[in-house]
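To illustrate the input format used throughout this study, we show a single complete record. The first block contains the structure-token representation of the backbone; no residue identities are included at this stage. The design step must infer an amino acid for every position from geometry alone.
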């Protein structure tokens, strides 16, 4: 891995961590406060979606400004729309992992969310690098 690519991936990790914190805080606040703490399948799906909206919004802004700042792409209407489509794929993957981990296997929300974040982070980086933020 060359130095520039390593730096870009490191910045992506930092942005991902900040985005994760926003996502996780919104997910847990929605689940514990708004939905009274019951981790039913429906409540978990709603809370995961709310957290996702917070996290992906922060992630987009920081990706354009901080991560892929030297790459082409990311600012056109087409690239923004593609970001939303790719993000929806990440949301679907997150929803699947949260459902399987919490509802089906009985793991806690935190452990499952961390696992989902690690998996989706790889998907996000690769898909955005290939389809949006070309070098």
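Output of the design step:
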């Amino acid at each position: 891995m060359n130095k520039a690519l390593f730096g870009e991936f490191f910045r992506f990790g930092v942005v991902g961590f900040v985005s994760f914190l926003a996502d996780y805080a919104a997910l847990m606040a929605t689940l514990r406060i708004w939905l009274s703490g019951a981790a039913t399948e429906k409540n978990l799906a709603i809370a995961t979606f709310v957290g996702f909206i917070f996290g992906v919004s922060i992630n987009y802004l920081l990706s354009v400004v901080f991560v892929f700042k030297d790459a082409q792409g990311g600012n056109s209407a087409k690239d923004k729309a593609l970001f939303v489509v790719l993000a929806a794929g990440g949301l679907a993957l997150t929803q699947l992992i949260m459902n399987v981990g919490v509802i089906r296997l009985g793991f806690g929300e935190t452990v499952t969310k961390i696992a989902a974040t690690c998996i989706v982070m790889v998907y996000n980086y690769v898909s955005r690098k290939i389809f949006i933020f070309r070098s």
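Structural context for interpreting the output: DSSP finds four helices and no strands in the chain. Residues 37 and 129 are 37 Å apart (CA to CA).
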